[in-house]
Amino acid sequence: MTAGLARLTDELGILYGGDYNPEQWEPAVWREDVALMREAGVNLVTVGVFSWSHIEPRPGEYRFAWLDDVLDLLHDAGIAVDLATPVASPPPWLGHRHPGSLPTTADGTVLSYGSRNQFCPSSPAYREAAVAIAERVAARYAGHPAVRMWHAGNEYGQFCWCDRCAERFRDWLRARYGTLDALNAAWATTVWSQEYGDWAEILPPRVAPYHRNPSQELDFRRFGSDLLLDLYREQKAVVRRHDQGRPVTTNLMGFFGGIDPHDWRADLDVIADDAYPDPASPDAPADAALVNHLARGLAGGGSWLRMEQAASAVSWREHNLTKSPARLRTEVLQALAHGGDGALFFQWRQARSGPERFHSAMLPVAGADTAVHAGVRALGAELRALRGLVGERVHRRVALLWDWPSWWAATQVALPTARLDPLATLQAWHRELWRLGVVADVVAPGDPLQAYDLVLAPALTVLERPAADRLDAYVAGGGHLVWGPFGGVADGLAHLHAGRSPAPLRHVLGVSAEEWVPLPDGGSAVSWAGPLTGHHGTATTLGERARTDGAEVLATYDDGPLAGSVAVARHAHGAGRAWYVGADLSGPGGGLEAVLRAALDDAGVALGGQVPGVETVWRGGTLVALNHTDRPATLVLAAALAAGPDGVRAAAALTDVLTDARHDASATLPLAPYDVVVLTGRMT
Ligand code: GAL
Ligand code: ZN
Questions:
Q1: Quick one: what percent of the chain has pLDDT higher than 70?
Q2: Catalytic positions, please?
């Protein structure tokens, strides 16, 4: 994955540019675009994502001259191309001639063309047409010198509940279960008289009178992700027939629930991610960091690519706040600090028409004489100066475990509470880490954990035996684990584990529970003990009626339905320690920060600068300090160094990469509002 990206960055440096949709413009505008791109330092643009109807206006009738000209123009200007197979949005002729190629929703509505993404992933008409257009594009441009990367489709994420998808679903289930008996057992169909006597009876989870089968729903999610992965692989295989070397990828969408990126990552030559943090959210800087940590986790801790972001406002929220150029710079350099070796945008030139005409761009509709464009140019110049960061590894010692089946299972209907949102829990735990100056990878429970000193599992509702065994071995071998609320309750089919909970892990935690207990509004007070004595806490949303089986009690419920029962505990297991956090402590005054601080301390993980709103990240021997606030801030360099890699901890001075200014390592660093400073440690 990282090798695919290195191929590009070795040649081009930090990638800078965005989606480019020349089919919306006259050739005279293309020439202006290319000149302005050069001046802005753009080195890579994504072309063709939505070009299908412009290339193939009628079935089998191709118009390539315009695309030839665009690629030649870009190449002559030294701008590389990430060329799309334009299959995300089929032309109207496909839906018109093959109405069956249109997607059907769970309630039977057929979605029309006239927008984008209107295809059924198992429609033969769509798939044949998509392979045919990809074939034409790849055959024609595989030898074009501008092309450096291929972009299959766009943001795969659409699903369909039609009869043909039902057939594909049955095929997928046959391959997974072999026999109807096995399927009936896996889906526990004796509940509510759902036993299937014939494969033909099995359907996707369509709109039904009451709750649907949770195991069927989980399998349909897996199937949906696999079906789209098939489509992606089909596109990649077409490209590979013509181009054996250049990386092929598609763009992920951070914490998007539709597809499971852990199943996709091996097929992506570059981990590419789109991110649109909401400038209106006070948590945007921390949550944006979390999305970057996911991308890096998917890339095995290595480099990844920001494929899309907004230069200022988006247009798809209800109320779309703009971003100042200073704030944009902070976001772009934040991603770079977190291992993102490129900053691409949607899009280069703002549209004048169509649904996205109010979406910002690197070149606004108001033209080049704008603050947004001036900011884009300045950023392009800075990224050239920061090339030395490319490929460097981010310094991190903590992992956050996250997986899609847990997310899916914990957001189904008919749970103890609908108020415990797994993603919100993950974000809440990460926000505490972020405030403490701790950088963490987001990884899957099956990923190698040995390199991490501390592993947090805030929301792993699903825990299968092999993953539990790996966590056991990790802790027994000296690792530190913090286990969150409503964790390990179910297997991969959302069947509850039998026995006291979390059954596969209770011997590691030294705690076991017998009942999930939603807490009254206002929560329950908890009293702290041991290393947490003196803290105060409130458990909200959900707790568990638990007892310790050998763990040291760190917090007990004072009142409410769980009065007297253990809320937080710590247990020595082999050479390591496991912490149990049985309730949601992430609310105001909840006490989560105290627990995580103590666990970090126990694991020997140093905290960072801890200036409110200021983030410090070490990438290689370079410190990136980011002020995410609109106020001036001051960073104590010694504190940032203490959390740095061994090699620079003893640095006597730090040099500003962009200005060459030297800072004494014992000094303080002033940061203007939204300022970012990039410092390299020196041992002199
Ligand atoms: C992405 C998409 C782009 C553009 C962008 C606007 O989801 O891939 O084509 O629509 O959103 O924010
Ligand atoms: Zn379908």
A1: 99
A2: 155, 308
